Amino acid sequence: MNLEWLKSYMVIVEEKSITKAAERLNISQPALSKQLKGLEGEYNTRLLNRTTKGIEVTEAGCYLYNQAKSLIQQSNLIKREIQEISGSNKMIIGSLPSVATSYLPRFQLENHCVFIQNYSQALIHALENNQVNISLIDNFFYNGPLVKKDLFSEGYVALVPKNYNLGQVDELSWKLIEQYPLILHSSPCDTSIKIKSYADDHNIQLNITKYVPYGEFLYGYVLSGEGMTVVPQLISQNLRHLDIDFIPVEDLSLTISAVARTNRILNAFLSLIEDKVIK
């Protein structure tokens, strides 16, 4: 039994798409299809049917999904408990890419692991499945029973082509954003979901001209003048070398929160980052 194949299969079922599952898992679609074929060969049955509307899970596939979820949760729990028994202090920290690259490096975390996912819901799933000890997420996407502590808040910044001549604007209004092409990452992506949700709530008609998959250089489209994009402030700080304008966006912010299964784990993480700030 290959647990990695089972994990991949679970993502396919949850995303209802091999393409979206491959993006979430950061692997190629052919590689994921090969894993699925391997599982179907191992159990000698069809697990999924592809239709014009997407993927349909067979009865055997539904049964396997439920059993796989239980198996993987138990496997991850065993790993965590063995670590505790052996006295290991290593913590597995689930994180969004911007937090992993621009926030966590402020602390001395060399003895710990960082598990990166592109969107908060995937980090919540990883926490619920015992893949990580704690997850650092956008607070907007979770209001459940897990224990949570807000860490910091930040705004969003528009990355704007120089030829739009908006460099003198102190803050970009949404009415102004409506007038220009907007380029976003394709789903699943916290920022894209949040921007579209804000636009729907405030009756804003966005001119979204392109969705770019994760792993593709979105900022290249901005540099070439094809459109603007919007990113968290943390990300924008690492892009100041680009020849584009960086303009704060009005009335949109995010709060990064640490989420854990227990107060003990949450407090252990908070103690870790408080005691190990790089001087």
Rg from Cα: 21 Å
Order of helices and strands: HHHEEHEHEHEEHEHEHEHEH
Shape: globular
| Fraction in beta strands | 15-25%
| Name of the CATH superfamily of the largest domain | Periplasmic binding protein-like II
- Which fold does the CATH topology of the largest domain refer to? D-Maltodextrin-Binding Protein, domain 2
Structural class: alpha/beta
Q: What integer is the average pLDDT?
A: 87
Query: In angstroms, what separates the terminal alpha carbons?
Result: 47 Å
Q: Which blocks of ≥5 consecutive residues have pLDDT under 50?
A: 275-279
In the sheet with the most strands, the strands line up as 4-3-5-10-6-9
Helical percent range? 40-55%
The CATH C-level class name of the largest domain: Alpha Beta
CATH architecture of the largest domain: 3-Layer(aba) Sandwich
What distinguishing features does this structure have?
alpha/beta; Arc Repressor Mutant, subunit A; D-Maltodextrin-Binding Protein, domain 2; 3 domains; two-stranded antiparallel ribbon; 10 strands; globular
Note down, in words, how this protein is organized:
With 279 residues, the protein is α/β, with parallel strands linked by helices. The chain has three domains: 3-85, Arc Repressor Mutant, subunit A (Orthogonal Bundle), CATH 1.10.10; 92-151 and 256-275, 3-Layer(aba) Sandwich (D-Maltodextrin-Binding Protein, domain 2), CATH 3.40.190.10; 154-253, Periplasmic binding protein-like II (D-Maltodextrin-Binding Protein, domain 2). The protein has eleven helices and ten strands. It has a six-stranded mixed β-sheet. A two-stranded antiparallel sheet has the order 1-2. It has a two-stranded parallel ribbon with strand order 7-8. A hairpin with a 2-residue loop joins strand 1 (48-51) and strand 2 (54-57). Helix 1 packs across helix 2 (18-25), helix 1 crosses helix 3 and helix 1 (3-15) crosses helix 4 (59-85). The longest helix is centred in the first third of the chain and has 27 residues, at 59-85. The radius of gyration is 21 Å and the shape is globular. The N and C termini lie far apart (47 Å).
